[in-house]
């Protein structure tokens, strides 16, 4: 009897890496933490990845039960995540993050928007729930899915942890430019999530 499903591990890892896009999170991470100290950036990276890991693990274990109890579906998650990301994107585009934030915001940035919904977003949550559905109660499948989630978050942490090398190249003015680009990208992601949410509601009611 096999205790590890290698095919599911590979499929889940690749799928979550594509959805969570570790390299793509670096510009947003730097736009929010680039002017902080190295120790603060490292702490934010660690906290953001831990928050994402906890959220994804929670939905892997009891995601369907939570959604069913609250009476909400994936489209609602997508809409909420899209609206939240849109608010963050507007802050970046209008330059509200151009000044040094207060110390209390260090933890907030790691939790929102980095931990969720940027890393543990609706797409990653939905994909995780789908993989759990397909596991069919097999131990090998659950072990593979758990290891895939851990592997993806390790990749995320490494990308964020060593993003400081980018700061040494782009300097302070580059961080400002990066914030504008990240804001534009976040706005596009937010609009796409909202569009997916609307399409999901329409298809669900048809």
UniProtKB/TrEMBL annotation:
<keyword id="KW-1133">Transmembrane helix</keyword>
<feature type="transmembrane region" description="Helical">
    <location>
        <begin position="139"/>
        <end position="160"/>
    </location>
</feature>
<keyword id="KW-1003">Cell membrane</keyword>
<feature type="transmembrane region" description="Helical">
    <location>
        <begin position="181"/>
        <end position="202"/>
    </location>
</feature>
<feature type="transmembrane region" description="Helical">
    <location>
        <begin position="69"/>
        <end position="90"/>
    </location>
</feature>
<dbReference type="GO" id="GO:0005886">
    <property type="term" value="C:plasma membrane"/>
</dbReference>
<comment type="similarity">
    <text>Belongs to the UPF0056 (MarC) family.</text>
</comment>
<feature type="transmembrane region" description="Helical">
    <location>
        <begin position="44"/>
        <end position="63"/>
    </location>
</feature>
<protein>
    <recommendedName>
        <fullName>UPF0056 membrane protein</fullName>
    </recommendedName>
</protein>
<feature type="transmembrane region" description="Helical">
    <location>
        <begin position="111"/>
        <end position="133"/>
    </location>
</feature>
<dbReference type="Pfam" id="PF01914">
    <property type="entry name" value="MarC"/>
</dbReference>
<dbReference type="InterPro" id="IPR002771">
    <property type="entry name" value="Multi_antbiot-R_MarC"/>
</dbReference>
<keyword id="KW-0472">Membrane</keyword>
<keyword id="KW-0812">Transmembrane</keyword>
<feature type="transmembrane region" description="Helical">
    <location>
        <begin position="6"/>
        <end position="32"/>
    </location>
</feature>
């Amino acid at each position: 009897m096999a205790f590890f499903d290698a095919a599911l591990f590979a499929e889940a890892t690749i799928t979550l890496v594509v959805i969570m896009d570790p390299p793509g999170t670096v510009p947003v991470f730097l736009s929010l933490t680039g002017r902080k100290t190295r120790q603060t950036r490292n702490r934010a990276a660690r906290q953001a990845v831990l928050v994402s890991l906890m959220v994804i693990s929670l939905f892997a274990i009891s995601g369907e039960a939570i959604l069913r109890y609250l009476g909400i579906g994936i489209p609602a998650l997508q809409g909420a995540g899209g609206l939240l990301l849109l608010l963050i994107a507007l802050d970046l585009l209008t330059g509200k993050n151009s000044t040094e934030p207060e110390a209390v915001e260090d933890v907030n940035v790691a939790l929102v928007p980095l931990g969720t919904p940027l890393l543990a977003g609706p797409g990653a949550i939905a994909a995780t729930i789908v993989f759990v559905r397909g596991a069919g109660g097999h131990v090998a499948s659950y072990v593979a899915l758990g290891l895939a989630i851990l592997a993806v978050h390790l990749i995320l942490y490494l990308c964020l942890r060593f993003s400081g090398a980018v700061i040494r190249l782009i300097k302070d003015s580059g961080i400002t430019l990066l914030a504008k680009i990240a804001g534009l990208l976040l706005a596009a992601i937010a609009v796409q999530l909202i569009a997916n949410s609307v399409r999901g509601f329409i298809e669900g009611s048809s």
